[in-house]
Design a protein that fits this description.
101 residues, mainly alpha, binds calcium ion
Length: 101
C-alpha cells in the first residue's frame, strides 16, 4: 500500500469519525443526578417528565432550567424543543412551564 493510499484512508476515517461524533443522540438519557430517563407522558413527542417519576411537577421545570446546557449537549433537541423553533433554549423553559401550568 503506497503512502498516498494510506493518507486517503486516514482522511476518510477522520471524516467518518467527525461525522459520527456530530450526530445528536436519538434517545433521551437520565439528566445528571437522576436515575430514570425523562418520559414523554402524553406521547406528543416532548418529554415533560424530566426526572422520570411519572409526574409533572415544578421539580421537572427546575431540572429543565438547571440542566438546559447539558440537555443542549447530550439530549435529542426535538424532545425538548417546546416552542418548535428547531433548537433548545431558555424560551423552551418558558414554553415548558406554560405547558405544565
Ligand atoms: Ca417528574
Ligand atoms: Ca426551541
Amino acid at each position: 500500500m503506497n503512502l498516498r493510499r494510506v493518507i486517503s484512508i486516514m482522511i476518510a476515517l477522520m471524516f467518518i469519525i467527525s461525522a459520527v461524533s456530530a450526530v445528536k443522540p436519538a434517545r433521551v438519557r437520565p439528566l445528571p443526578g437522576q436515575t430514570h430517563c425523562p418520559v414523554d407522558l402524553n406521547r406528543d413527542g416532548f418529554y415533560e417528565d424530566m426526572n422520570g417519576d411519572r409526574h409533572v411537577t415544578t421539580l421537572d421545570v427546575q431540572l429543565f432550567f438547571q440542566w438546559i446546557e447539558w440537555i443542549l449537549r447530550y439530549e435529542p433537541a426535538r424532545a425538548f424543543d417546546y416552542n418548535r423553533n428547531g433548537r433548545v433554549g431558555f424560551a423552551d423553559v418558558v414554553g415548558f412551564y406554560n405547558e405544565v401550568y
